[in-house]
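Quick one:
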Amino acid sequence: MEFEPLELPGLCLVTPRRHGDDRGWFSEIFREDLFRANVCDADFVQHNQSFSAAKGTVRGLHFQIEPRAQGKLVRCARGRILDVAVDLRASSPTYGRHVAVELTSAEGRQLWIPAGFAHGFGTLEANCELAYLVTDYYSPAHDRGVAWDDPDLAVDWPVVADGAAMSAKDRKLPKLRELGTVFA
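Output:
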């Protein structure tokens, strides 16, 4: 596995090695010992999967507040997405900045997003599946979000605002400046 720290502290791109032959390939997509040695001590407690049928679907930007904040290891199991992480740690010098990474099933790269970041993605083709490990259980009482199209975040989404397929809940998320401090 290869581990590439990204420009926002805490984020890491994880690329599992693939061992292939004429039948296809095999890959270890997660190894606790290597993850702990190269990224952080994370205890994953839930494995999630989502499916988005339409190209141009946007999900996010989501996070959970303390004490149920989640770190996420995100992988595109089918298709191609633009995965986005926004720093919401008030004391961070990169507060309000984001990283956007293309994840594809063909490449197998994964994005580690620690607690303190909002996460979302946009589908770059139809029929995308995401699989991700999280460090805490889903808690509706701690579930929050920030507007995907907030001009202060300036995320260059691969979709047109009016044409994005998204939930009614995601369309109503507050702007960053309306959030207040969510992570000290």
